[in-house]
Amino acid sequence: MNVKKSFYVYALVSEKDGVIYVGMATDPDTRLRGHNAGRSRYTSGHTPWRLFYKEFAGDTIEAGKKEKFFKTSAGKKKLKSILSALGR
Question: Which of 43, 48, 50, 69 falls between 20 and 30 A from 29, CA-CA?
Answer without folding.
Answer: 69
